[in-house]
Design brief:
The structure holds 2 protein chains of 2 kinds. Chain A is 5% helix and 37% strand. A 5-stranded antiparallel sheet of chain A has the order 6-5-4-7-8. In chain A, strands 2-1-3 form a 3-stranded antiparallel sheet. Chain A is built from 1 helix and 8 strands, in the order H-E-E-E-E-E-E-E-E. In chain A, strand 5 and strand 6 form a beta hairpin. Chain A is mainly beta. Chain B has 15 helices and 13 strands. In chain B, the strands form 2 sheets. In chain B, strands 1, 2, 3, 4, 5, 6, 9, 10, 11, 12 and 13 form an 11-stranded mixed sheet that branches. Chain B has a two-stranded antiparallel sheet with strand order 7-8. In chain B, helix 1 (37-52) packs across helix 2 (73-80) and helix 8 (177-192) crosses helix 12. The chains are: A mainly beta, B alpha+beta. Chain A binds chain B through residues 1-3, 8-12, 15, 17-18, 21, 43-45, 68-75, 77-78, 81, 84, 86-87, 89-91, 99-105, 111, 116, 127, 137, 139, and chain B through 133-134, 137-139, 141-142, 144-145, 147-157, 159-160, 163-165, 167-168, 171, 213-219, 265, 267-268, 270, 272.
Amino acid sequence: MAITRETFPLPDVSNPFLAPFFDGAAKGELLITRCRLCDVLVWYPEESCPTCSNDLEWVQVSGRATLFSWAVVRRPFLPAFEDMVPFVTALVALDEDPHVRLCSFIVDVDPEPLSIDSPVEVVFRPLQFATVPGQFVIVPMFKPAEM
Amino acid sequence: MTRSAWGHAVSLDDINGKVAIVGIGETEYTKVSGRSVTEIGAKAAERAIEDAGLQPTDIDGLAYSGAFPGFGVPEFHDHFGTSHDMWTTPWGGGMAWAGTVPYVAARAIANREASYILNVFGVAWASERAQMTGGPGEVHATQTAKQNLEVPFGWFPQPVYFATIMRRYMHEHSTSREEFGALAVTLREHANLTPGSVFHAKSLTMQQYLDAPMLADPLCLYDSCPISDGGGAFIVTSAERARDLKQAPVIVLGVGEGYSATGTNWSQQREFTKTPQIFSSPGAFAMAGLGPSDVDVLCCYDPFTVVSLMQIEDMRFCEPGEAGQLALQGHLRFDSGRLPYNTHGGLLSHAYVLGIAHCIELVKQLRGSASAQVEDCRVGVYGGYTGHMASTLVLGTDR
């Protein structure tokens, strides 16, 4: 059961199931899986569409979203988070389909002025942890949208 | 069968009045103890068998949690020096399965596969986590989507999930921190009345709640249950046999089981501030021929304060968003005459033994032997919750 991957908690970009998400982020694109038949976004990625069992494909979305909810993490629950707290981790609801919620950091803002359902937009930043020295993965993060 | 976009109920046969709980056993509830799940299970089993006035050789069925192995048939025989044939199922133990195991047992009893079924559950997360080998977060961190799409973004473990749910809940219902605080304080008062609870000797005031450090804002220390070692067991048999035994039988009146379509991926659950108790409870009440207003005592799986509020609402004890007011107005106290709730202190203040102690508390209440005893207690309900699944168990005194 224990996680032995040395790069944990960095994402495993070699996992073929999720690699397109991180490959896209590295190119500045936010990619989500969509059913080829229903045309509905499916998140998290599945082997096939949970509604019609057809294949999924990765498609680019706008990166515009709303702040569904968030937590200001003050206690580091993993050693990797020790020098990061406090940080804001959030669920953002995509404009294309608010039922799809991405989990990420809210950056470039103090937590105090955040408000639920406010607009946010994607930025691509390197994610790195002091516990995994010398390595980083470009990931989507979100910041309050420019008015 | 109830179906909706985000979950469903399981259709169950009517077992109202068929089986009863006839013995209960508890271990010591502690922080880090060095005990193993096997030792905890054995002690709970021993005490439940004694409470029922049975012998280990009478026990011909054993239910345990497949997710928490450690006390199965081999360990039972090792401990008691027995070797008889035993029916067994991994669909028992604690969490939501503590609520559905009486149904599984009723089926086995009806099929003459067993007569006296012992359900046993132990957890040693306090000791295991101290050795970095277990704990509630591990199972989530090993799932591919969570490990790569949540954990790296700091959305981990349960206190962070439920802080996010709590914030959305507070937004939707304009819930104050005092409402969550009132629940935490009420449960602590119940634990203070209950010898053996981990927080028996430690009081909690509203001011302490409001001043407590945030783990993941808006979720503070007292919104979250501690990690404990301990366990419990109960024995299920037919209602007929139950009436010849030592203890007044506690009759199983109704069972319900419901699932969230998104499993334990809380981030994607369509109804973010609800639990699958929405799907589980109607069937259990229908089987029992009762409704929420008939319930004298309610015990729900309460790892976080917001989970209590959501389940109370999802079981229709009040409208969505009103459970915090029930807490604030004192209606959840054991002596309120309204909705006595987690009268032993719950996971939040009694012990984090994942629901088995909730069921044992209900049996005590219905026997009239609880520490914070509810007056004239005839119907008790357990609300089990594991995130992906909820269960509802309606128990009653023998009429």
